[in-house]
Write the structure tokens for this entry.
Amino acid sequence: MRNPKYHIYLTPDERRTVINSLIDLRNDLISRGKYTDVIDELLIKLTKAKVKKIKVKEV
């Protein structure tokens, strides 16, 4: 059985915050001498992700 895929929709400010948080986490792991492979993969996926414009209706 395949793993389900999840989609997350972020505003530009939220996207910037997530990227900065991942970079801070990566730097912390490097300073402790731990592996950063998973964080690196997430950063690559996040920076290469297509930007999709959607309309949001407020109720």
